[in-house]
């Protein structure tokens, strides 16, 4: 059975500073039509900054949609036309006050594919060196360190609800565990 939906029309519904909403009319595989509400997002980058002592740099910040303080990997939105690696380098420096000598790509994540086109690029950053942090004017956060193994335990216990953090940290843990087991 064919699964692809054909876009019949598309109309903007809201133009915000960060997000745009459009309404698409689509033809479903069975020939009927439906509407899709799509949030257009510029995309982002998340960084697992790993120290030589296998500690992960994290940020804690208040997230208004959830009404709580979340613990997350450093991350941020891409500027128009900005390469993901450049976004990651910028966000790591701005949020944590560190720069990295090496960035290892961890792939991409579609955090909410049912209604948003956001793509988050994930990286592991190593060879960290301290610099001066410069958070955005509207960013208020605390930087902390957590041992990688402890962070994995917190993720598995449901204590870290942020999806990009869960995915990126578990990927790094898996990557490092497999590398050690293979003697690389």
Helix content, binned percent = 10-25%
- Our count of helices gives 3
CATH topology type of the largest domain: Nucleoside Triphosphate Pyrophosphohydrolase
Poorly predicted spans: none
Question: CATH homologous superfamily name of the largest domain?
Answer: Nucleoside Triphosphate Pyrophosphohydrolase
Q: What is the CA-based Rg, rounded? A: 19 Å
Give helix and strand order, one letter per element, not per position. Answer: EEEEEEEHEEEHH
Q: State the end-to-end CA separation.
A: 45 Å
In total, how many domains does the architecture comprise?
2
What characteristic shape results from the CA principal axes? Answer: globular
Name of the CATH first level of the largest domain? Alpha Beta
Multimeric status of the protein:
single chain
Mean pLDDT: 94
The biggest beta sheet reads: 7 strands, mixed
Q: Tell how many strands the DSSP assignment holds.
A: 10
Task: Please report which band the strand proportion falls in: under 5%, 5-15%, 15-25%, 25-35%, 35-45% or over 45%.
Answer: 35-45%
CATH architecture of the largest domain: Alpha-Beta Complex
User: Which class do the helix and strand fractions yield?
Assistant: alpha+beta
Offer a quick outline of the entry.
With 184 residues, this protein is an alpha+beta fold.
């Amino acid at each position: 059975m064919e699964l692809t939906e054909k876009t019949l029309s598309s109309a903007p519904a809201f133009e915000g500073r960060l997000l745009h909403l459009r309404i698409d009319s689509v033809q479903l595989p069975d020939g009927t039509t439906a509407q899709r509400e799509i949030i257009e997002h510029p995309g982002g980058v998340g960084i697992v900054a790993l120290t030589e002592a296998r500690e992960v740099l994290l940020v804690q910040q208040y997230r208004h949609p959830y009404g709580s303080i979340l613990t997350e990997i450093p991350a941020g939105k891409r500027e128009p036309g900005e390469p993901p690696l450049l976004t990651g380098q910028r966000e790591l420096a701005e949020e944590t006050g560190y720069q990295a000598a090496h960035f290892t790509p961890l792939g991409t994540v579609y955090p909410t594919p049912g209604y948003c086109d956001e793509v988050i690029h994930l990286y592991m950053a190593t060879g960290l060196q301290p610099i001066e942090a410069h958070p955005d004017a509207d960013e208020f956060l605390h930087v902390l360190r957590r041992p990688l193994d402890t962070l994995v335990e917190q993720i598995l216990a449901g204590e870290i609800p942020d999806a990009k953090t869960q995915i990126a940290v578990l990927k790094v843990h898996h990557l490092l565990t497999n590398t050690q087991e293979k003697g690389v």
